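job 3f2a | input accepted
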Amino acid sequence: MRWGFAALPLLGALVAIELGARLLARSRGAPFDAEATRQRIAAVRSSFLSLVPETDGRGAHTASDSGPSLSAHPYCGFEFTRVGTRLEKELAYFASPEARANYDVVVLGGSVAAAFGISGGARLEQRLASDPAFAGRTIRVWSHGVGAYKQPQPLNLFHYLLGLGCEPDAVILVDGFNELAVANQNASVGVSPLFPWAAEWLRLNGDPLREPACVDALVSARLARARVLELCDGALEGFTLESAVLAHVAWTRIDRARADANDAQARFSAAVAASDAARHVRGLPVEQDVLARLRACVRVWRLAADALRASCREQSIAFVHVLQPTLLEEGSKPLTAGERERGRALPAWSEAIRLGYPLVREASRELVARGEAFVDATDVFRDVGDDLYEDACHFNQRGVDLLVDRVAPALVAEVRRR
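job 3f2a | predicted structure (418 res):
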């Protein structure tokens, strides 16, 4: 009993600290939400297991704990190893009478496109099915976005899918960010901006294990990744996230570990790019003038999309092109304190978006003037003050839903116009 009475002041202090933390969070316009924190940590964990966080608006998917399993692809640079199994089922579907009766939408692009197709697929299906233009048709959405893909990878993937037997009725291309940010990141380590993402391209083709410096950098990157997963698993187990104080401490440690892991990955890519073993897979010399380099990237973005649009027109496939939003574009959204904290990005990314998005928007005016189905979705979050972004370019389920709601009417209009 004496020990119990002695512990009362300590217990009272802990309760007071917890209440103070919750009141402080509320006063800042972001009340503590244990479930939201849990989802944020789960998304970080998933992103270190797969290039695309595997959450689905129709139910959760669990990524393999073995980490991202990527293999070389002859036309696209790399692909998920597990895609082969999925494609077998998909091709069997497209060969069936069911596919001819349904309305199939293929989503192409990078990881944001993947989230659009996976997490937003059910909402897109519902939005389209409710319109008379699709009366009597069952809508199916197929996500073929791949993390870090940029043009001409989606273009090449589309033609590969057509050759295999996929027969979509519509294609939605969600891109623009990777074509600039990932391309500029490539250039920062001496790899051609037009090559696939250097981190995977060099790992698959640069023979990094031939040189000690590359091995050391790879070990550091793997250890840093393991630390992120360890902290995420520790936070997701038990009752840590039920406390505003403990949840803040856990998230701060995870966020720092995530930044360290990203830095370690960047150092590994730079080490491989600088190695003699990778000299044959770096591509043409990198243009040192940043604006000239980004203009070349925008040109590839526009020409690849034009080629994809032409292929769709030839196959009587509806096509909608979407410029994705990003936290890095100044003024595109009123950012919360959490978004500012989570939105830190590589300097190469920030530079690419600051200088490159105006160039993309300038190039897109020609598409709009020609009457093409182009959606500039960079302002889709302009009036939303709530937490949406999980990092510089990925957003939560509400963000996906808002993007789907912006894009769906454009596809309906394109189908009606045809």
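job 3f2a | The chain has two domains: 1-32, 69-206+275-417.
job 3f2a | closed
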